[in-house]
Amino acid sequence: MSEELQADFEGGDSGASNVYPAQCSSLRKNGHVVIKGRACKIVEMSTSKTGKHGHAKVHLIGIDLFTGKKYEDICPSTHNMDVPVVKRADYQLIDISDDGYLSLMKDTGELRDDIRLPDGDLGADIKNKFENNEDLLLTVLAAMEEEMVVATKPNMK
């Protein structure tokens, strides 16, 4: 096998997708959906009656998981929409760097330092508790190649 082909195989990922299709009528409030390319939590949805062209329409309102921005979409109930694969993980806070990145440790001992301190009240709360030497667990939400700290709780050992 040539070196060019060999290099292609070494850099591949597992092939796992960031989203999966789901019929619009199967979506539920408080579930997740992709609207305008953003991972959103469904906060409101309503279904209209079947029209003269034969499709009931579902009106979705979602809040972006990472920015909090509101998005709306209308989709025929029989069509598919993308649903993001959303993962939550708890990490112990080890350190906060001068440039705003968090040093986090998973319960397996794996370290990571590629997540920024969140903006706003949550970020200020984390920084304040860290400076007061509180032992914290941070909940990180991950979807569609984005990650962000969304919650904090005391670490009960």
Automatic annotation (TrEMBL):
<dbReference type="InterPro" id="IPR048670">
    <property type="entry name" value="IF5A-like_N"/>
</dbReference>
<protein>
    <recommendedName>
        <fullName>Eukaryotic translation initiation factor 5A</fullName>
    </recommendedName>
</protein>
<keyword id="KW-0648">Protein biosynthesis</keyword>
<dbReference type="InterPro" id="IPR012340">
    <property type="entry name" value="NA-bd_OB-fold"/>
</dbReference>
<dbReference type="InterPro" id="IPR001884">
    <property type="entry name" value="IF5A-like"/>
</dbReference>
<dbReference type="GO" id="GO:0045905">
    <property type="term" value="P:positive regulation of translational termination"/>
</dbReference>
<dbReference type="InterPro" id="IPR019769">
    <property type="entry name" value="Trans_elong_IF5A_hypusine_site"/>
</dbReference>
<keyword id="KW-0251">Elongation factor</keyword>
<keyword id="KW-0694">RNA-binding</keyword>
<feature type="domain" description="Translation initiation factor 5A C-terminal">
    <location>
        <begin position="85"/>
        <end position="153"/>
    </location>
</feature>
<keyword id="KW-0963">Cytoplasm</keyword>
<keyword id="KW-0385">Hypusine</keyword>
<dbReference type="InterPro" id="IPR020189">
    <property type="entry name" value="IF5A_C"/>
</dbReference>
<dbReference type="InterPro" id="IPR008991">
    <property type="entry name" value="Translation_prot_SH3-like_sf"/>
</dbReference>
<dbReference type="GO" id="GO:0003723">
    <property type="term" value="F:RNA binding"/>
</dbReference>
<dbReference type="Pfam" id="PF01287">
    <property type="entry name" value="eIF-5a"/>
</dbReference>
<dbReference type="GO" id="GO:0003746">
    <property type="term" value="F:translation elongation factor activity"/>
</dbReference>
<comment type="function">
    <text>Translation factor that promotes translation elongation and termination, particularly upon ribosome stalling at specific amino acid sequence contexts. Binds between the exit (E) and peptidyl (P) site of the ribosome and promotes rescue of stalled ribosome: specifically required for efficient translation of polyproline-containing peptides as well as other motifs that stall the ribosome. Acts as ribosome quality control (RQC) cofactor by joining the RQC complex to facilitate peptidyl transfer during CAT tailing step.</text>
</comment>
<dbReference type="GO" id="GO:0045901">
    <property type="term" value="P:positive regulation of translational elongation"/>
</dbReference>
<dbReference type="GO" id="GO:0005737">
    <property type="term" value="C:cytoplasm"/>
</dbReference>
<keyword id="KW-0396">Initiation factor</keyword>
<comment type="similarity">
    <text>Belongs to the eIF-5A family.</text>
</comment>
<dbReference type="Pfam" id="PF21485">
    <property type="entry name" value="IF5A-like_N"/>
</dbReference>
<dbReference type="GO" id="GO:0043022">
    <property type="term" value="F:ribosome binding"/>
</dbReference>
<dbReference type="GO" id="GO:0003743">
    <property type="term" value="F:translation initiation factor activity"/>
</dbReference>
<dbReference type="InterPro" id="IPR014722">
    <property type="entry name" value="Rib_uL2_dom2"/>
</dbReference>
